[in-house]
Amino acid sequence: VNTNLEADILLFEMSHFIIEYAETGIDFGAEYAYQTISNAEFRYNDRGVYDGGQGYHWIQLYDCVFTGNGVGMEGRMSVWDSTFEGNDTGFGNPYSFQNSEEGGRVINCTFIDNGIAVGTIGQIITFAVIEQCSFEGNGKGVYNYWAEIDSCDFSNSSELGAFLQKGHVRNSTFTSNAL
Questions:
Q1: Over the stretch 36-47, which tens digit does the pLDDT of each residue have?
Q2: What does pTM read for this prediction?
């Protein structure tokens, strides 16, 4: 079952649910979208949550778990206090305007054994603010065109801990990552 949510303006909050084995768990297609998702699980989907709409978006996810998806979440969204484990890509194409007010924020999340934890998967320019996150045993920790990374731990990445073409890494540790 796929959940396509399309409208000119879409406002809602959803919590305490599981979506699994879908092509796309939730696809936000609204021109103006203000959604909050919390305490949800996305398991074994081709893509867990996708924001492909155009216009002004403010999609926020809190306390979610993404396990075994092709892509856990993708697009202009922000995520807090969530876990990404065993996904091909945890958070793909994080996007925001430069100040990251509407999306592209990854705060206090844990990424374990993902192919790419946070990164570009097909788009050329993406921007993210990544703070207080833990990256353990991923292929690539952060592989993004542009990011501001602060107070994160990167360990045991099989390909690289973090790669940016633009941005900064501050107050972060790197342990036993391949180059």
A1: 999 999 999 999
A2: 0.91
Phi, psi of 132 (to 5 degrees): 55, 40
**Residue reference for tokens 């996708």:** 50
Report helix, strand and coil shares of the chain as percent, to nearest 5. Answer: 0, 60, 40
Q: How far is CA 85 from the centre of its chain?
A: 12
Note the pLDDT tens digit of each residue in 128-179: 899 999 999 999 999 988 889 999 999 999 999 999 988 999 999 999 999 7
Q: Write the burial class of residue 81 (CB in 10 Å: 0-12 exposed, 13-18 middle, 19+ buried).
A: middle
Helix (H) or strand (E) holding 54: none
* Chain center to CA of 58: 14
Show the 3-state SS of 136-168.
ECCCEEEEEEEEEEECCEEECCCCEEEEEEEEE
DSSP letter, residue 99: T
